[in-house]
Write a structure and sequence with these properties.
Shape: globular
Distance between the termini: 45 Å
Order of helices and strands: HHHHHHHHHHHHHHHHH
Number of helices: 17
Structural class: mainly alpha
Helix content: over 70%
Length: about 425
């Protein structure tokens, strides 16, 4: 009862943050409840021949990422015109229906159609970030975005655990139905509990991916943040095709027996992200988001390079946990810099572009990891990834020295 009283007396932005953080956790959890088990779904429920599972898994991943990259700026422009809350609800309802449809498909071709629609309509999380960036007090932006980032990471950790249990007990289709229910429930919560003070505005210029990229290019700080998000996402997922093989190598067991251990170790970075994201958000408010971005990118690169020396699963897991502590500060700092370097009238499109570059990074990372892993040992792939993070970290230092980070958006962009 005391908790309900405290919630009732929260300020509007605090209630919004609470609801949207839970909603983002549901959204992230719904996604990770499904994605790691797509190959199993293809094999056991859709009866795809085992020789074709790898191909169809790649196609299904790429389809969603590609259409997400193309459509995100469009939804961002709609959010600038009609309001962030409306776009969050739109994304949530459509995603919920897509999850339900995906749980009822009978062939891989039908699932492909669902995955393309999934990519095209996504936007719950970027919409939430855009809404919160508008309604939070400026001095709370970094902390608030850190809370949302922690919620996303938390949902990402719990999703595979819940999805795995459901798949074992009831089959994969149950995971799709629960994922759809979760995101629809989050959308209902946004409808009735989130308040947005938004005045509809007219966007004079047409908006699409190329036009928005052109506008972002003239805002050097925003364009730099987009490149950093692309690099971060690619570096985060570059090990995805190789992680199970590497864990099996460290544990000296066949790869088929290392799936659970690999998922557990991979989730350690997510766990430390949950713990550290609010701290880095608070540090950003006090010392500047650009400084935090520089520290965490360099720190992540240096810690990741230690994987070169990992000789057993315990050291590997420990380094992953420390890596996550640094990784936790990067996304909130980039998001806060996006807010600081864009005008309110362009913010929906800005976060739409952020999503596009994240999706492109998600496509590039596993592909690059697979290519590098084909002719290099996995230890060297870690080193290359670490070098990429350090190089981009120093690009932040260069931008700070050049006084790049400031409001720099031409008025005609709004």
């Amino acid at each position: 009862m005391n908790i309900l009283y405290k919630i009732k007396n929260l300020e509007v932005w605090q209630k919004n943050l609470l609801v949207l953080s839970i909603g983002c956790a549901f959204s992230s959890g719904s996604y990770t409840m499904i994605i790691p088990f797509l190959p199993i779904y293809l094999l056991t429920e859709l009866n795809v021949p085992q020789s074709e599972v790898a191909f169809w898994t790649g196609v299904l991943f790429s389809a969603a990422f590609f259409f997400g990259a193309v459509m995100s700026p469009y939804w961002g422009a709609r959010a600038d015109k009609e309001g962030r809350k409306m776009m969050i609800m739109r994304a949530g309802v459509l995603l919920g229906l897509v999850y339900f449809a995906s749980g009822m498909v009978r062939t891989q071709y039908e699932l492909f159609i669902c995955r393309t629609i999934h990519g095209a309509v996504m936007g719950f999380i970027p919409g939430s970030l855009a809404l919160m960036s508008d309604c939070m007090p400026k001095e709370k932006t970094g902390w608030g975005l850190g809370i949302i980032q922690a919620s996303i990471a938390g949902g990402g950790i719990l999703g595979p655990l819940i999805g795995g249990v459901l798949a074992d007990l009831f089959g994969m289709r149950a995971s799709f139905f629960l994922a759809g229910s979760n995101i629809l429930l989050a959308s209902l919560a946004v409808k009735f509990l989130v308040k947005e003070d938004f005045t509809p505005r007219t966007i004079k210029k047409k908006s699409n991916f190329l036009i928005n990229i052109s506008l972002a290019f003239h805002n050097k700080a925003l364009f730099h943040m987009l490149i950093l998000f692309f690099a971060l996402q690619a570096c985060t997922l570059i090990m995805q095709p190789l992680i199970t093989v590497y864990v099996a190598e460290l544990m000296r067991i066949p790869p088929v027996q290392a799936v659970f251990a690999a998922g557990l170790v991979f989730s350690l970075a997510g766990l430390s992200t949950v713990l550290a994201a609010p701290y880095w958000g608070h540090r950003g408010q006090e010392q500047g988001y650009s400084k935090v971005l520089f520290i965490t990118m360099i720190g992540a690169g240096l810690i990741l390079s230690l994987q070169f020396f990992s000789s057993n699963i315990w050291m590997f897991g420990s380094v992953q946990f420390l890596y996550g502590l640094m990784l936790a500060g990067i996304a909130p700092a980039i998001n806060a810099n996006v807010v600081d370097n864009t005008h309110e009238g362009f913010r929906g499109r800005a976060f739409g572009l952020v999503t596009s570059f994240q999706q492109l990074g998600s496509m590039t990372g596993p592909l690059l990891g697979g290519v590098l892993g084909s002719f290099l040992t996995i230890k060297y792939v870690f080193v290359i990834t670490a070098i990429i993070l350090i190089v981009f970290g120093y690009s932040v230092k260069f931008a700070i020295n050049k006084n790049l980070y400031h409001i720099n958006e031409p008025k005609q962009n709004i």
